Predict the structure.
Amino acid sequence: MGQFFAIHPDNPQPRLVKQAVKIIQDGGIIVYPTDSAYAIGCQLENKEALDRIRYLRQLESGHPFTLICRDLSEIATYAIVNNPSFRLLKAHTPGPYTFVLKATKEVPKRLLHPKRNTIGLRIPDNKIVQALLMELNGPLMSVTLTLPDQEHPFIDAQDIQDLLGNQVDLVINGGACGTEGTTIVDLVDGIPKVVRAGKGSLDAFV
């Protein structure tokens, strides 16, 4: 059975954050809250953990993952960002948006869109996530935790633990999350294109 941490959504306990990051660094996969829905993630370089997530979610090999980043400077490490895109990113992060951009060579090829060499990136407005990323000193490789037979993501951490506790290494209870995913915006060509309408407002992209 994987571990279950109750981490305060406004004042994350440093001891639990350090323990959670140690689990990630040791190759674990974790379930954690975001500003949209619960997500499942692992360390960027860990192919075995990625394969475990794919198996759990029953994802095809080409299914896109998102890099969860601390800030704009970290996004610039993994994606090519021109000035107009940077201004949009600055105005809408942190927040419930995933931005699709051309990837740099820092992104492992197994994470890229097979034809476009793009990657989705996001900076969640969630203090637990920010604390994890600061301690990890790098991004999380992540997808929303929605199982194949589910129409919507989980909203309650205890339900996740009861169902998936034997298949993940840690579930973080950070309070109830919503069921609406992020708004996905494609910035590859410099002109914003809304790929999926979600929790984030569309006003700046239409």
Notes: Residues 3-198 form a domain with the DHBP synthase fold (CATH 3.90.870.10). The mean pLDDT is 93. The helical segments are 14-25, 47-57, 72-78, 83-92, 127-136, 157-164.
